[in-house]
Amino acid sequence: MENIGQKYTARAHTNIALVKYWGKENEELIIPANSSISLTLDEFYTDTSVIFDSTLQQDMITINSEIVNDEKISKFLDIIRHKSGINLFAKVESINHVPNSAGLASSASAYAALATAGSKAAGLELSDKELSMLARRGSGSATRSIFGGFAAWNKGTDDQTSYGYSIEDPVKMDINMIAIVLNNSPKKISSRLGMKISYETSPFYDSWIKQTNEDFETIQNAITNGDFSTLGQTAELNAMRMHSLTLSANPSYLYLNKDSLLVIEMVKELRDKGIECYYTMDAGPNVKIICQKKNIKAIVDNLSNQFSQDQIKVSGPGEKVKLI
């Protein structure tokens, strides 16, 4: 327990799912309805510091230098306290280098960083697999942000069998993502609520699970074989099938906006011109374009006709979580 009273800081990067997770079989433990695959990105990340302090009367949490009263983070710290057997409050300072709640996986990097710094500050020495299981309790996608490059989240059936693992890091494939930040604002319907509505009410949900299991195998093989085209095509279709669950839910809801559709059409036009690229979207209006290095300039030049430079973020594969 020599770590107690020391401050630890961790950096974790966001990830964008190529095979989406959309729906939970267990809300409390965050056990997903399907396994998923992602690419960790170097452009977006969270730095989080944690110290357990015997002088504190409550958890002190700041996000982007603002004091917040976040019950979810305190409950997550309770899990760390329970695992480590300590009974101290913590001071948490987190800086997000990614817009919150806008479909750019801010919670994934946030909880991966919090799990890593928090467990270390509590005297725990966890493996990457154990860290992924801990991070999952805060955000499902954080399971994958423990790892760099291509990572997967094994669905599992309980707390011990639902975990993340590395598929390939460093990444051998020529792959980049261009994120078009169309809206920095938190979304009206959170991912958590959106998943619940889709899981419980979409008549297409069972078909989604069957198809997504097939997509998982397809993309895993594409990574192994260095097959960029199959990866891109499958990821694009998987994303649109996820969004079909929002439209077919009761009540129906929508994350896309008119600018999202504009980017989607631009990607299709670029493909028609022989510039290979594919789009994907998570729970938010922001679109990510999957492309190879040789086509980045042409895509960015095209996007610049409609969007500002501040809205266009080019990212390559990112690293695994680390203490800094």
Automatic annotation (TrEMBL):
<keyword id="KW-0443">Lipid metabolism</keyword>
<keyword id="KW-0444">Lipid biosynthesis</keyword>
<dbReference type="InterPro" id="IPR036554">
    <property type="entry name" value="GHMP_kinase_C_sf"/>
</dbReference>
<feature type="domain" description="Diphosphomevalonate decarboxylase-like N-terminal">
    <location>
        <begin position="12"/>
        <end position="163"/>
    </location>
</feature>
<keyword id="KW-0456">Lyase</keyword>
<keyword id="KW-0067">ATP-binding</keyword>
<dbReference type="InterPro" id="IPR014721">
    <property type="entry name" value="Ribsml_uS5_D2-typ_fold_subgr"/>
</dbReference>
<dbReference type="InterPro" id="IPR029765">
    <property type="entry name" value="Mev_diP_decarb"/>
</dbReference>
<protein>
    <recommendedName>
        <fullName>diphosphomevalonate decarboxylase</fullName>
        <ecNumber>4.1.1.33</ecNumber>
    </recommendedName>
</protein>
<dbReference type="InterPro" id="IPR053859">
    <property type="entry name" value="MVD-like_N"/>
</dbReference>
<dbReference type="InterPro" id="IPR041431">
    <property type="entry name" value="Mvd1_C"/>
</dbReference>
<dbReference type="Pfam" id="PF18376">
    <property type="entry name" value="MDD_C"/>
</dbReference>
<dbReference type="InterPro" id="IPR020568">
    <property type="entry name" value="Ribosomal_Su5_D2-typ_SF"/>
</dbReference>
<dbReference type="InterPro" id="IPR005935">
    <property type="entry name" value="Mev_decarb"/>
</dbReference>
<feature type="domain" description="Mvd1 C-terminal">
    <location>
        <begin position="178"/>
        <end position="311"/>
    </location>
</feature>
<dbReference type="Pfam" id="PF22700">
    <property type="entry name" value="MVD-like_N"/>
</dbReference>
<comment type="similarity">
    <text>Belongs to the diphosphomevalonate decarboxylase family.</text>
</comment>
<keyword id="KW-0547">Nucleotide-binding</keyword>
